[in-house]
Write a structure and sequence with these properties.
binds magnesium ion; three-stranded antiparallel sheet; alpha/beta; seven-stranded mixed sheet; binds inosinic acid
Length: 214
């Protein structure tokens, strides 16, 4: 399995170096990952998953809503070569940009996981609360195996014990990023910015604007 690409210590690109919709432009401090770089990394993750899951029938579990775009690019990649069923799960632990700690699930009948190989497809592992709750629930339902495809992780924010729990599962991880709130490529801030094609970091004005919207 390849190492995730480590971007923890820099914000490499300014907004004016890419074609960014002007509705988003003034809300961004910079671009962390241009779309093309994400696409190239996702292709590699698809290759790795295909190599490991040869001839297995997977449940590909898309964590809504943030992972939607990653899910589609990953599972429908020309480098992906596994049989899979699509399931979706909505986990709620966030209000605005703060994790609330407890996780509630909807949309997926967990009993379907019994005896099955499950691939969780998640946009970002932040504190890890959501991932841990999902892993626990799948284990309790008797999933045969559970692996994780996560586009992003913020190691500085991980809770104690998370690494140990993750280490027990195959982990296909795209990028390590700094402790910044990121949007785009499907990720949102209070429902906004999902349509930004690149992964960007919000600026102060964007957070201030959000205060006036609520
Ligand atoms: P965790 O439970 O703290 O790991 O948070 C996981 C969920 O919070 C992710 O699935 C995302 O939906 C959301 N999240 C965490 N960090 C960010 C971010 O920087 N931008 C957008 N959503 C985020
Ligand atoms: Mg999410």
């Amino acid at each position: 399995m390849s190492f995730p690409i480590d971007l923890q210590r820099k914000l490499p690109y300014s907004v004016d170096q890419f074609a960014v919709d002007k509705a988003y432009r003034s809300h961004l401090a910079g671009i962390l990952l241009p779309e093309g770089q994400i696409t190239s990394r996702v292709a590699r993750l698809a290759e790795e998953i295909s190599a490991d899951y040869d001839r297995k029938d997977l449940i590909a579990l898309c964590m809504l809503d943030g992972a939607m775009r990653f899910f589609v690019e990953l599972l429908y990649s020309e480098h992906m070569n596994v049989r899979f069923e699509v399931e979706t799960l909505k986990a709620k632990s966030y209000a605005g940009d703060a994790s609330t700690g407890n996780v509630t699930f909807s949309g997926f009948d967990f009993s379907k996981a019994e005896g099955r190989d499950v691939l969780i497809v998640e946009d970002i592992i932040d504190t890890g609360t959501t991932m841990r709750a999902t892993l626990d629930k799948l284990a309790a339902q008797g999933a045969k195996s559970t692996s994780i495809a996560a586009l992003l992780a913020k190691p500085e924010r991980h809770q104690p014990g998370l690494q140990e729990q993750l280490a027990a599962h195959p982990l296909y991880l795209g990028f390590l990023i700094p402790d910044e709130f990121v949007v785009g490529y499907g990720l949102d801030y209070n429902g906004h910015y999902r349509g930004l094609r690149h992964l960007g970091v919000l600026n102060e004005e964007a957070f201030a604007l959000a205060q006036t919207r609520t």
